[in-house]
Amino acid sequence: MTSMKVKDVAELDALYGAASPRSIAKEINYLNFEYQSFIEASPLMTIATVGREGLDCSPRGDKDGVVRVINSTTIRFADRKGNNRLDTLRNIIEDDRIALLFLVPGVGETMRVNGRAVISTSPELLEAFTMDGKPPKTVIEVKVESVYFQCSKALLRSGIWSSDLSVACADVPSAG
To answer: Is residue 47 part of a domain?
Structure first.
């Protein structure tokens, strides 16, 4: 197979063309009412971080909404007990940049939020995020730098919300 690597941004732009003005204009640096409402409706998000040891992308979810909107530029979420690898948290300590992708079941669009994160052990915050009598070990606070809706094309193509495409757990590899 012949390797045909795209080597620079100019070549990439020539391949795809310019982004639509609307896709550029939808990106803002704060959470307007619509963006806040979408985040508050989301029980699931993925977090992407980077550190010296590499990249991490992992899911976070809570039954009562995964993130709390504090104001138009600040959101918080609990870091609940998991496998204790702590990849995301280690990365935040080394490099505070964070990218979040919010999903709402049945909704085609997703929301992307990029910002800077800090990890808090504030007793007041831990208490505020207690669920089923269990406080989290930490709360992550994100200062929003950019936010926008991502179009629904990928979710529509995947059929992710279609019950017709549900897969039996026994048919998929498991972590244990």
So the answer is: yes
Provide the CATH number for the domain around residue 90.
2.30.110.10
**How far apart, in whole angstroms, are the C-alpha atoms of residue 92 and residue 95?**
5
Asked, for residue 3, whether it belongs to a domain, the answer is: no
Domain that holds residue 50: 21-75+85-118+141-151
The answer to whether residue 158 is domain-embedded is: no
CA nearest to 158, candidates 166, 149, 170, 150: 166
What is the total count of domains within the chain?
Answer: 1
Which pTM was predicted?
0.88
> In 19-34, which positions are buried (b, 16+ CB within 10 angstroms) versus exposed (e)?
eeeeeeeeeeeebeee
Helices (H), the chain: 9-16, 21-25, 33-41, 87-94, 123-128, 153-158
Residues 6+ apart with CB under 8 A from 128: 139
For 10-25, how does the pLDDT look when each residue is reduced to its tens digit (9 = 90+)?
A: 999 999 998 888 888 8
What confidence tens digit (pLDDT) does each residue in 35-69 have? 999 999 999 999 999 999 889 999 999 887 889 99
Q: Closest Cα partner for 64 from 131, 134, 137, 124?
A: 131
